[in-house]
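Propose amino acids for all 174 sites.
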């Protein structure tokens, strides 16, 4: 009985301590990278779908889309996304928050690779004593007590983005 109780407690503690793990690349920078297949797509269809998706998904944000017309293979998107004001415990408040990141697609007939990287976080941090600090750093170099919560928030957002462009790559443009 004692062993079972110990095992249950160990499992509960290990699962409650799990936090968002943003993957890193060889340079220790945060980066999401994978390959995805599309069931129905002709030449150029995926490019057009993802280009259309980016312009509609990020319509209210600062967006730069660069499409390689020579090979019709690469699509680069740079996004500056505003974030809502957030309170991290009673000690810290972040306002004027922005997350900037880059999405690159390497598209081949019925599949594509994607990279989501170059994360930069900017905010005005005010601690409980009223001391203001301007944060503007690469996400992997961010030095703040609220770092873990910010990483979890970014991970959740990027997972939504990946799901959205995965669905958009499958849908024909009307």
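Proposal:
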């Amino acid at each position: 009985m004692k062993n079972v109780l110990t095992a249950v407690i160990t499992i509960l503690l290990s699962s409650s301590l799990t936090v968002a793990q943003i993957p890193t690349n060889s340079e220790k920078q945060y980066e999401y990278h994978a390959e995805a297949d599309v069931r129905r797509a002709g030449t150029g269809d995926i490019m057009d779908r993802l280009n259309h998706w980016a312009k509609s998904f990020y319509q209210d944000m600062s967006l730069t889309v660069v499409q390689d017309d020579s090979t019709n293979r690469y699509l680069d998107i740079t996004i500056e996304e505003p974030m809502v004001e957030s309170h991290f415990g009673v000690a810290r408040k972040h306002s004027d928050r922005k997350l900037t990141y880059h999405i690159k697609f390497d598209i081949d007939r019925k599949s594509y690779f994607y990279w989501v990287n170059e994360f930069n976080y900017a905010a005005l941090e005010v601690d409980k004593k009223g001391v203001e600090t301007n944060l503007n750093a690469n996400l992997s170099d961010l030095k703040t007590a609220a770092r873990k919560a910010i990483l979890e928030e970014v991970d959740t957002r990027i997972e939504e983005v990946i799901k959205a462009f995965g669905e958009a790559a499958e849908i024909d443009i009307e």
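The beta strands are 32-37, 62-67, 74-83, 86-88, 92-108, 111-127, 132-138. Residues 12-19 have pLDDT under 50 and may be disordered.
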